[in-house]
Amino acid sequence: MHIADGIIPNVWCGAAHAVSWASVYWLGKNLETEEVVRLGMLASASFVISLIHFPLGGTSVHLGLYGLAGILAGRRAFPVIFAALLFQTVLFQHGGLLTLGLNALNMGAGALLAAALWRIKAAPEAMRAFLCGLAGVLTPALLIATEFSLAGYGKGFFLMAALYLGAGIVEGLLTMGVVAFLRGARPALLARTS
Amino acid sequence: MRDLFQRLDPRARVLLVVSATAIMVSTPRGILLPFAAYFPLCGLVVLTGRAAASALTWRCVAASPFIVLAAGLLAFQQGWSLEGIRAAAPAALSVAAKGYAAVFLLAFLTLSTALSDLLAALRGLGVPKSFNLILGMTYRYTHLLAEEYRRMERARDSRTLRPLARRRASLYGRQLGALILRSWDRAERVHAAMLARGFHGVWPTLHRPCWGALDTAALLAVSTLFLAARLLL
Question: How far is A151 from chain B (nearest CA, A)?
Answer without folding.
Answer: 11
